[in-house]
C-alpha cells in the first residue's frame, strides 16, 4: 500500500474514533458502535454503493426490545454472536461482525473490498483474516445479507494493498480466469525483487491497478523503470484504472483484455519451451 493510502486510512480511523468518544460521553449507556461507524473505526471507508448513511453514527443492541433512539444516531439490533472491542467509554463491533452486518446494505463486490481492507498486507492496518470473516458469517445463521457473504466467500483475497486490487481479484476469479497470486514477488536479481499486485506466475502475466497516486512525475518514472525491468524478465503487465471498473461494460472490456493477454502469454511461453 502506498503511504498516501495508509495515511488516508489512518485519518478515517482517527476521525471516527474521536467522534465515537465524543458522542459516547453524552449518552447514558455504553454504546456499541457498528456498521459504517465500525468500518471507519477499523480504518475502512464505507463503499460507494452502501445504502446506509455514512455521515450518521450507528449503534447496535443485542436485544431488540431494549433498542433505544438517540439524536444523530441510527440504531440497529443483532441476533448473532456479539463480538466487540472495548474502547474505553464505548464498544465497537469486531471486524467479522461488522462485515456480516454490512452485507445487508452493499453488493458482494463491496463486501470483497471490505474483506480485502480488513485483511490487507499492511500489518499496521490488518485487523482480521479472511478465515475469521467467513467463519463468523458461516456460524451466524439467519441474518439478512448472509447469502451475499456466502456467495462472495470463495473469491475473497488477503494481502491486497488497496480496495481496487480486491475488485480486480474478484473480477478475475468470477470470470473464469483462474486463481491469481496476490502481491506476487518477482526476483529481478540476487538481492532485488518487486511485487506485482495480481499475477499468474506460470505464464508471467501481471495485473496492476493504477491509482491516482501514480500520476506524480517521480512515480511515473519509477513505474516505467519497473515495468521495463519486468518485461526484460519476460513479464507482461495489464494496467487497470478506475475507468475499467466503473460499470459492467467497462469491466467486460478489461476482462477481455486480460483474457487475450493470457492467451498470448501462454502462446509465447509455449514457444519459449520449444526453442529451449
Order of helices and strands: HEHEEEEHHHHHEEEHEH
Helix content: 40-55%
Beta strands, count: 9
Shape: elongated
Q: Strand order within the widest sheet?
A: 6-7-8-9
N-to-C span = 38 Å
How would you name the oligomeric state of the polypeptide chains in this document?
Answer: single chain
Q: Give the total of domains.
A: 2
Low-confidence stretches: none
Enumerate how many helices there are, as a single number: 9
Query: What Rg do the Cα atoms give?
Result: 21 Å
Largest sheet: 4 strands, mixed
Class based on secondary structure composition and strand pairing: alpha/beta
Mean pLDDT: 91
Q: Report strand %.
A: 15-25%
InterPro entries: Restrct_endonuc-II-like (IPR011335)
Protein name: DUF559 domain-containing protein
Topology overview:
Layout: H1 3-25, E1 32-33, H2 35-41, E2 57-61, E3 73-77, E4 84-86, E5 91-93, H3 95-102, H4 108-118, H5 130-139, H6 146-152, H7 163-174, E6 181-189, E7 192-200, E8 205-209, H8 217-232, E9 236-240, H9 248-275
Helix pairs in contact: 2-3, 3-5, 4-6, 4-7
Walkthrough of the structure:
It is built from 9 helices and 9 strands. It has a 4-stranded mixed β-sheet with strand order 6-7-8-9, with helices on both faces. A 3-stranded mixed β-sheet has the order 1-5-4. Strands 2-3 form a two-stranded parallel ribbon. Helix content is 44%, strand content 17%. α4 crosses α6 and α4 packs across α7. It is elongated. It folds into 2 domains: 154 residues, no CATH class; 112 residues, 3-Layer(aba) Sandwich (Endonuclease, Chain A). The mean pLDDT is 91. By secondary structure, it is α/β, with parallel strands linked by helices.
